[in-house]
Amino acid sequence: MLNLRRKIIDFIKKTNIVKKINYNKFVFYFLFGLKSQFGHFKVNINTKCLVLSQYPGAEIKGLGGLMAQYPKNFEVLCFTNGSSLLPDLNPVESASIKKQQFCDVMQTLRVKGSKIFDIEDKTLKNHYSTFKKVDISEIDYIFVPNVYDNNIDTIALLKHFKQMLKDKEIKETLKIIMYESDFPMCTLDYYVNISSIIETKKKMLRMYYPENKFPGYTDRLIGINSFRAIQHCCDYCETFMCFSVDEFLKIPLI
Fold first, then answer.
1. Of the candidates 43, 71, 76, 74, the residue with the CA atom closest to the CA atom of residue 59
2. Is 11 helix (H, G, I), strand (E, B) or coil?
């Protein structure tokens, strides 16, 4: 069955239809089918989690609530400096502000560790050397943006991460968790109730997107957490897809 799915994906890739449809929807459907398990994601006291973020702010959009509940279990690496995120400023000024915002948010979170790299937006594809320096040998869960984000730095991050998994020592039990940052995912495995911590998540989002410059932006971002919570009898939740390393390495990227 897997070989048949691969043949179908190869056929789709070779045709012009990939320009007209969301290719990744076909990837997930044919490789994994509709994933049915949808349980509560738990972090144990000794669980080591690493978050890979494609730009400052993506990590809070996707799992700010989860990190706020278990800060000592998390390390966060942001791979671009936000040089294009404030278009009314020049790249140097934009990067300076976004890097400071990242540091302020991480201090608010009180995570175990964090770092933002001085890599300009849209150039991440040229920086695999940065990934090679990251130690993932003792990590239990690595959180990455989902492939539906479909922007140049997200795809570069995921491609570098795939190579990283092949090149570096990892735990046999390592799991890869995809989070929602810019676009929602079509199938889900786990959810986390963040109702009790939602004000903290809002505060961190407003540090990245202050109301005087981004009016209503935080409430709109939180909207997906409210929507995701409908079927879980809570007010707000974050949702994720979970993959083994083998499954993740089989996901084709555009």
1. 76
2. helix
pLDDT of res. 22: 46
Question: In degrees, to the nearest 5, what angle opens at C-alpha 138 toward C-alphas 69 and 127?
Answer: 90
Query: Do the Cβ atoms of 236 and 198 come closer than 8 Å?
Result: yes
The number of residues making up the chain comes to 254
pLDDT for 81 beyond 50: yes
Helix (H) or strand (E) holding 74: strand 74-78
Radius of gyration (Cα) for the chain, nearest Å?
18
Look up the pTM and report it: 0.86
Query: How many whole angstroms separate alpha carbon 80 and alpha carbon 211?
Result: 24
- Picking from 207, 227, 230, the residue whose alpha carbon sits closest to that of residue 218 is 207
* Residue 31 token pair: 């490789």
Phi, psi of 182 (to 5 degrees): -100, -30
pLDDT of 41 reads 87
Query: 220-246, pLDDT tens digit by residue?
Result: 999 999 999 998 889 999 999 999 999
The DSSP H or E segment spanning 192 is strand 190-193
